[in-house]
Amino acid sequence: MQRHTKVYMDFFGYGDQDTIMCESFCGKRAVDVHHIDARGMGGNPDASKDVIENLVGLCRNCHEKAEHSEEFNESVKQKHLRRIELWKKTH
Length: 91
Hints:
Blueprint: H1 3-12, E1 32-35, E2 55-58, H2 60-68, H3 70-90
Antiparallel strand pairs: 1-2
Helix pairs in contact: 2-3
């Protein structure tokens, strides 16, 4: 499992068998953990972008949209940050 995927799953307490829904609320299953602020070419060797505030679970279609639309990516980011705040208050 990639480091950023582990960070995301551990934060929300997901197990390997859990179904994770897309955080853009499209109703589909998340299959990717997207870096909101991109890692850049060559990855992220120092893991500075592998923090929960920068990692969001998305379906393939929404991941593609986030990669190509700054507006959509920002919308996903705001939803994700609200989700983190709520999670911290309730867990």
